[in-house]
Design brief:
Layout lengths: L15 E7 L2 E7 L11 H13 L5 E5 L5 H10 L2 E6 L2 H13 L4 E5 L10 E6 L7 H10 L4 E12 L4 H8 L3 E9 L2 E8 L1
Parallel strand pairs: 3-4, 3-6, 4-5, 6-7
Antiparallel strand pairs: 1-2, 7-9, 8-9
Helix pairs in contact: 1-2
Length: 196
């Protein structure tokens, strides 16, 4: 199986468009083989961004880590009228995120980056649906190092399924952040973490 957190230049391209509606606005996301949740909007990502938007009414800067084709960062930036920086290790995902930012008329910067390697500056919010299949060490690095890229009152929002280690991750992350489970649905936990 081709993993969405690797680059395979030989993988055949088969573009498809995924519609998404929220609060009366219609989005269209171009997707392709070799990216996360290529055929439909991932439930965890959707739950994360919609829960986040229910809570957050303003925000000056957003970072979407492991952005895939850009769903979370683009939707959040659209409704909060702000710019988002999107990062992913997957070249194809970054190419698609740029297309989707433009298509959905959202100002984004999409950067190929292994986690935070190419990320500069700090943000009000970091959103991530971490790549569980990349291994626990990658997930923990994404969550732990987020604090270095958050503004003083910044927030890290992330989603993890209960059966994919939500409880053990919660225990680890509680040592660094003030952590709150904002929502639980269908085995998915939505976390908000604030720097201690």
């Amino acid at each position: 199986m081709e993993h969405y957190f690797t680059n395979n230049e030989k993988l055949k391209s088969e573009l498809r468009v995924i519609p998404y509606q929220y609060r009366g606005y219609s989005f269209a996301f171009t997707s392709d083989n070799g990216v996360f949740s290529k055929n439909k909007i991932d439930f965890g990502s959707r739950l994360l961004v919609e829960t986040f938007l229910e809570q957050k009414k303003e925000c000056a800067s957003i970072l979407d880590v492991g952005c895939g084709y850009g769903f979370m960062g683009i939707v959040a930036a659209k409704f909060l009228h702000t710019k988002a920086v999107l990062v992913d290790i997957n070249k194809r995902a970054i190419h698609l995120a740029k297309i989707n930012g433009s298509k959905n008329e959202v100002e984004i910067e999409a950067i190929e980056s292994n986690i935070y390697e190419q990320v500069n500056g700090t943000f009000d919010v970091i959103l991530t649906n971490p790549p569980i299949r990349a291994g626990k060490s990658v997930v923990v690095e994404i969550l732990e190092k987020a604090q270095e890229h958050l503004k003083p009152n910044g927030e890290l929002w992330f989603v993890i399924r209960k059966d994919q280690g939500a409880k053990s991750i919660e225990k680890l992350i509680k040592e660094i952040y003030t952590l709150e489970i904002v929502k639980k649905e269908k085995g998915f936990f939505i976390f908000r973490a604030k720097k201690n």
